[in-house]
Automatic annotation (TrEMBL):
It comes from Actinopolymorpha singaporensis. SUPFAM superfamilies: Class I glutamine amidotransferase-like (SSF52317), Glycoside hydrolase/deacetylase (SSF88713). This is NodB homology domain-containing protein. One of its GO terms (biological process) is carbohydrate metabolic process.
Amino acid sequence: MTVAVVVADEQDVGKFGRYLAEILRAEGLADLEIVGLTSPRLHDLTKFATVVVARSRPSREQTDRLRAFAKGGGRLVLVRPSYYLARAFGLAPASTMVAPAYLRPLGTSPIANALPQEAIETHVPADSYAPEALPAEAVEVARLYADVGTPTSFPAIIELPFGDGRVVVFTYDLAQAVALIRQGDPNRVGGRGLGAGEPYRIQDLLTGYADSGCWHLPQADLHAAMLVNAVNQVATLPQPRMWYYPEPAHRSVLVLDSDDDWSASEHFDALLGAVDAHGGKITVYLMSGTSRETVASPEKVAEWRARGHSFGVHHDPSDPSYGGEDPEEVIVDLVRKDLADFDRHYGGVPTTNRNHCLAWKGYVDVPKVYAELGVRMDLNSVGAGPSWLKYLTGSARPMRFVDVDGTVVDCFQQSTQAYDDLAVKGLLSADPRGQASLTRKLMEEKVTRYYSPLSMLSHPVSFFTYSRTYMELCWQAARELGMPIWSAFEWADFVVARDRARISDATCTDGVLRCRVTGRSPAGALTIMLPVASDRVTRATVDTEAVPVTGLDVFGWPSSLIPIRVDHDRASPHEIAVETC
């Protein structure tokens, strides 16, 4: 049994339905199905362990089908249900809203265990429900807040029994909230919010929009974790999902890359040699443009590639050769030209990218052209200036971009939190050990609580002239904390392989949970996570061979991690069996 996501593509309110499914996929639910609100499959939902209903306006007949499904024992997660759908499940809409809403956990519900005991933002309206009119056995999981410190009387998340089934209600559009937290306000497109001058950046969509009092929290990741916890809470069968990394021992990775910025040969040699010494790999984005050329010749790049490092393009739409044209008007054609030039000189299409000075266009114009040309991951979302070492995008986890109309763009957004450039040169020059200590605390938080990667940028020239002490202390800390140091290419290759892996045929009979995992991994391994405490697991096998089980509390949910050895290049099926007591 799997999870269904019911979407209404044809409705204006339903445009983020498929992005809701994308959030669940990014969280590792690799066996979900998308069901159209008007599809005949809505007539029989009994094969699904949980049905997640994205924001929509169901007809009376569709509402009756969802109601009958839950009453007969089905499990539902409703995301900002319509007025009539909410009333069908015994709720009392107050016909008001909190806009934009914050929310904070209440009580000890496992759903909200993902959240700290403080409010997080949504950027979207949340519907108000009369608290005194909640059904008798309903549980308020989280409370709506008007801001980080002002509670309302209205619930943000509600869990309730309904007939023989169970229902969880999110009173806000979680999918749209995640999109806005990660990517910023589309109404700010073309404006400047960061205060850093030219060029226009994605940070201009976020700075002044994202609540700086919440930057210390990965808010988008927390919303996603609550959605998964809601599925875990009500599902008729524990839902296996892909762990975030290849091995159970991996709780985070350090994703390392570099912007050329016309560095000299000795700068490259120093940086790449130090990365080698720490057992890591790095991706370097080479300068484009005609006014100044990179020193990284095809011969040098071939030599560095032989050591395991990788190379892409550092597109520069502000190059003087473009005659002072607006970088937004230059960048799309420039990306096409640069990638063709790169293929001719160095060979191949880069897997990941970051632009010079983080140049951007529109809302998701740049990721769209990357997706068209085969670039799989964008790293332009850097916590610049005051958001240094924080979560400006509310996330450190990779996830595909989404356009304003809800279209999912096949290019992953990966935020970068630590770096060396002019914005932090003073900090890293004056107190490299103190800043490395702060970065280590961020790593420890990731390893013990959030399980997200740390993306780190080191320019060759910066490393050579002022940031070496800081960088090497951070890399040493990563190794001590069990964080592999991967290049951006290596990380993106794994993210894509994990995304393409599938979990199917999940069943539970006589205390044995079974499923099939089909996939490959450049690391030679995948790991599945089962929302079952490890002390309940008596034996786990992969293709009938016993494997170790690692217990871990994941966003408040006791879970078991099960490793699977897979091919590097060819997806193959593996049979998983987990015996529980």
